[in-house]
Amino acid sequence: MIGVRKTAPTTASMVAMVEPVTASIFGVLLLGDHLGLIQFLGMALILVTVTILSVKQAG
Predict the structure, then answer these.
(1) What is the separation of C-alpha 19 from the centre of its chain, rounded to a whole number of angstroms?
(2) DSSP letters along 10-26, please?
(3) 49 in Cβ contact with 55 (< 8 Å)
(4) Which of 23, 8, 17, 4 is nearest to 52 (CA)?
(5) pTM to 2 decimals?
(6) Euclidean distance between CA atoms 14 and 37, whole angstroms
(7) Are 10 and 55 in contact (CB under 8 A)?
(8) CA-CA distances (angstroms) from residue 3 to 6, 37, 47, 56?
């Protein structure tokens, strides 16, 4: 949370958007959870959106 307070709002929102994706990946890797097609599509959509936003922010 300290790092989020010291970054720009756009960067903080992108980090917050990726948080559920990393939690899901850790759940699969560490806890053996199983994800369905909808979950994988949602994760892909989030990652594509964050990538597009970060490219637009850099440019």
Answers:
(1) 5
(2) HHHHHHHHHHHHHHHHH
(3) no
(4) 17
(5) 0.76
(6) 23
(7) no
(8) 5, 33, 21, 22
Which amino acid, residue 47?
L
Say if CB 18 and CB 47 are below 8 A apart.
yes
Which tens digit of pLDDT belongs to each residue from 1-58? 677 678 888 777 888 888 999 999 999 999 999 999 999 999 999 999 988 988 887 7
3-state secondary structure of 36: coil
3-state secondary structure of 7: coil
Measured distance CA(14)–CA(55) in Å, rounded: 12
Instruction: DSSP letter for 53, please.
Output: H
The tokens 């890797």 sit on which residue?
29
